[in-house]
Amino acid sequence: MVEGSVKSYEDLAVWQRSVAPATRLYKVTAQFPSEEKFGLISQTRRAATSIPANIAEGSGRGSTREYIQFLLMARGSLMEVETHLIIAHNLEYVGSELLSQLRSETRELGRMLNGLINALRARQRA
User: Fold this and answer.
1) Among 71, 87, 72, which residue's Cα sits nearest to residue 36?
2) Which of 61, 70, 99, 117 could lock onto 89 through a cystine, CB 3.0 to 4.6 A?
3) How many domains are there within the chain?
4) If you write DSSP's letter for every residue of 84-103 in order, what string do you get?
5) What are the tens digits of pLDDT across the range 68-107?
């Protein structure tokens, strides 16, 4: 872990910040048409839950290199969620205001992930 006071992945601000949108997306996708159950609903939920899961799994790995790899997967899942949201908006399942709010959250989460990745890479080089 990067910070000395962090004892668990649950102490990481980036993990904490990633759980709320994942939970929120479950509620948002529950409003999608039922024909999307095995499509956009499933894919969005899977990608959203993958973000905090990869942060947690990476923090439990034995090396900084592996941790970074899992954070990169979390970042990829974040981009996947954003893409699903744009498609949902285009299909009129998500309104413009909600899309804007969710994208703002994903951008902030992306900045936090990038910060942690960069800190770990710097520590790795030291």
Assistant:
1) 87
2) 99
3) 1
4) HHHHHHHTTSS-HHHHHHHH
5) 999 999 999 999 999 999 999 999 999 999 999 999 999 9
